[in-house]
Write a structure and sequence with these properties.
alpha+beta, Alpha-Beta Plaits, 4-stranded antiparallel beta sheet, 3 helices, elongated
């Protein structure tokens, strides 16, 4: 599983609509919004391809000026670890 942190900068007139759109993206959780409108989200995806696809989707949402990935980590799937230990 890939876990990433992304800072999303929406157009100042689109902060609320962008937050709503982000909440509709699978694997995305909105964690904070700064007074300036910067949105901090985490993105969880199965693999690198899914992470890239979701990141590109976020970058192209209506009202998004920019999106910057600031953290990325690949974690083993906990269910796969359990089944391999059995």
């Amino acid at each position: 599983m890939n876990i990433s942190s992304v800072i999303v900068i929406p157009h100042p007139d689109h902060i609320e609509p962008v937050q709503r759109l982000l909440r509709e993206v699978a694997g995305v959780e909105v964690h904070a919004v700064s007074p300036e409108g910067k949105i901090v989200v985490t993105l969880e995806a199965e693999d690198d391809r899914a992470t890239t696809d979701s990141y590109n989707l976020i970058s192209h949402l209506d009202g998004v000026l920019s999106a910057s990935m600031v953290f990325h980590q690949n974690e083993p799937d906990p269910e796969a670890l359990i089944s391999s230990e059995a």
